[in-house]
Amino acid sequence: MSVKDHSDDITTSHGDVESMLRDSIWAQNLDSVTLDHVRSQITEREVGPGEYVCHQGYPADHWIGVIQGLVKLSVLSPEGKAITLTGVNAGGWFGEGSLLKDEPRRYDGIAVGQTRVALMPRTTFTWLLDNSIAFNRFLLRQLNERLGLFISMVSFDRMLRPEARVARCLATLFNSYLYPNGSLSLKVSQEDVAQLCGMSRQRANQALRELEANGLLKVEYGRINIQDLEALRDYGE
């Protein structure tokens, strides 16, 4: 079942939402009364592999956090080809742009593997904007980090060889501000990596083998473990 940006069939669970809020930079800066109010409004949803977290063109009714798993953000080309823009790793929140501009989603959000998401209603997001200076500061920094991420992706897509493109693409999924979960492990297939990096599976596999041979990461079945994040960020320079 797909997750659409409507709250009429959302089931609520607790546990993991609390853990995510403890790690979320914006939540750490809220006073206890404000945080309790916000937590009471957030719901949680399980999303299966390949299912939609949000749909391009649908109303943006929630700010979305990734509790566990990975969400890829993608669009369709005029020819109907899916183009992956980026991935949102566990600990990250996305969709604030559509909420701030009050416009429909500009991309599809699709779960990569079993994923759990947190959904903050638009009304709660707007309430935070109106009542929390700390939250506004966080959003400014998050938008700046996101802009820097996309600028770097465009530059290394045009200038770097495939091995460096894969290295930099993977490194963006471990931005400590955007995804403050602390894990250096990514539960993805090599096909997922190819889609995230915008290349063929064969080319992505070759790149991963080179990066593994250089001690930057370790490829396991359905998982990639990062061994040297700083080297991965600088690979190809």
Automatic annotation (TrEMBL):
Cited InterPro entries: cNMP-bd_dom (IPR000595), cNMP-bd_dom_sf (IPR018490), Env_Response_Regulators (IPR050397), HTH_CRP (IPR012318), RmlC-like_jellyroll (IPR014710), WH-like_DNA-bd_sf (IPR036388), WH_DNA-bd_sf (IPR036390)
GO cellular component terms, semicolon-separated: cytosol
Domain (Cyclic nucleotide-binding) ranges: 26-146
GO terms for MF: DNA binding; DNA-binding transcription factor activity
PROSITE patterns linked: CNMP_BINDING_3, HTH_CRP_2
Keywords: DNA-binding, Transcription, Transcription regulation
Source organism superkingdom: Bacteria
Keyword Secreted carried by entry: no
Gene3D superfamilies: Jelly Rolls, Winged helix-like DNA-binding domain superfamily/Winged helix DNA-binding domain
HTH crp-type domain location: 160-230
Protein name (database record): Putative transcriptional regulator, crp family
Origin species: Alcanivorax dieselolei (strain DSM 16502 / CGMCC 1.3690 / MCCC 1A00001 / B-5) (Alloalcanivorax dieselolei)
